[in-house]
Protein: ESCRT-II complex subunit VPS22
Amino acid sequence: MRRGRAGIGGLKKKNEESKFSKKAEEIKTSSLESAMQTVKELEVKLRNFAETHQSSIAKDPAFRQKFLSMCAPLGVDPLTSKKSFWSFLNMGSFYHELAVKVAEVCISSRSKNGGIMSVKEVKNVLVKRGTKFRLNEVVTKYSEDDIIIAIEKLTKLGSGFKTLKVGEQMMVVSVPTELDNDHVQIIQVAQDTQGGITKSMIANTIGWSEDRVTRAIDLLLSEGMIWLDLYEGLEYYWFPSVWKDSTA
Structure:
């Protein structure tokens, strides 16, 4: 009889666990459906906002970035194809055209800087060339943030383009060379000295061994990202883009 009671108790316990599991699944499904519905509602509200402020999005780079920052948490991409929910903004075409012009600037300067230059310099070159873009038939200004977004489009194409943050600056790398943290730190030291550095300056500033400095410098030198200048028996290494940007 004791075994029978234990068996019945165990059966009841399993039934209760099954009920709890079923209820948990129902709550989970209900929560997921509710969350999806909320996202859809927010997307509709976001579209209404975009329609109301379409002119500001087209004309004002700062307003455009704020709008895109509102879209990001919802996984909304207004840069998608013309047939999309967001086609009326025509932002995809704008960033595509900007990406093409950014690529032209970077590629044409590779022989001088080895394929690395600041986003600020890219923008300055475009402005000096008088490059203009239209967004929804409106000639619009473009910011450094717009250029960074355009580069992200190039990155997705596997073109070797990417952005790299060095200190407070964003740099554009337009070659497939993989730069590690050592190279980033060296570029940052160069920024602090207006572009020119020596191996001993790097070693003293960061606290590296001579071998570590040499390995990092050799790769940058072989890729043409820095220039070697001999002055009074010392080897100075110059980052063309950092030097130009600091003297602009």
